[in-house]
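User: I'm preparing a small set of examples for a lab meeting where we compare how different chains pack in three dimensions. I only have the primary sequence for this one, and I'd like the structure in token form so I can line it up with the others. Please keep the answer compact; I'll paste it straight into my notes.
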Amino acid sequence: MRIAIIALTKNASKLANEIGTKLKGDVYVKEKYTTPEGYAIEGDFIDFVHKIFRKYQGLVFVMATGIVVRAIAGVVKDKFTDPAVVVVDEKGKFAISLLSGHVGGANRLALKVASIIGAQPVITTATDVEGVISLDVIAKDYGYQIENKEDLKKVSAAFVNGENVRFILDEDAKKIPMLKDYVKNRDDRQVDAFVYITDKEIKKPLGKPYVILRPKNIVIGLGCKKGIAFEDLFLFVSETFKKLNLSLKSIKSIATIDIKKEEKGIQQLAKFLKVPLVFYTKEDLKKVEDKFPISDFVFHTVGVGSVARPSAYLASSGGKEIAYLKKNGMTLAIYKKEGLTWDGLKSWE
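Assistant: Understood. Below is the structure token output for the 349-residue chain.
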């Protein structure tokens, strides 16, 4: 996590260096206050802020809030892409979460900074003030992709206003500690909003706001003949997912053997699905090939007895096989990585 700490005055610069040391961040101050480890603020301050704004995941300003508001006004976009912005006064009395409190992590960054300098953290997001859960935080902590963002404000408002929000969860999601008090079966006619945490395709509720949090927990392993077309691969994958009632948006990566790096069809598939490609050498695959049936044809072609299954197995860290299919020179293995991932507070350590 890249963090910048910015200050303008002598006293503020001392505090910025203290925070920067503990957070292992980059400290920017006026040239006359720089240390050997720090950086000088050059030129117009607002231009400087605009220049670095998207180079960091978190920015801590040690100065008046008004200065910061005017400096970032021209570059603020939305809560899904803006970095965390925290403001600290020169005396170090308050650490204010100013921008991107949940998704960007400013609330947590403010708490972290406050603990470093002994300040009072100032958190103003409604869900935190009311003591209810934030879907933004859950999505960030567990790596979920938010679908139907248009309804996110409505669903969050339902939490804050004490309305009936129904959770429909996969088994792994039921283990999330902050959800245990919300997971209750209620009559759909009484529900004000829905939250789905699932890798499955769902029937959207009519007339009610809803949000889907998609876990990125599925890996697909591919094997194919040389020169396979993107259209054939996509049709094979999408039809299989449809039959299994799985969402393509839950795919975390596509895995295969490294000799397929130049296959245009596989490259186009990864680009279309917006997921990374993971390649393994035949030596990598041989380490686990004894777990799977061996194909003599595949062995004589690429030097290892199986490609799709061991690739998916490795990429999913030994996950559970959901399906394995062959069709027209293509093999597809679908693996699911089970259990929860946790990235939240660790990102600020």
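A couple of notes for your slides: The CA atoms of residues 46 and 70 lie 8 Å apart. The longest strand covers residues 320-327.

User: Perfect, thanks.
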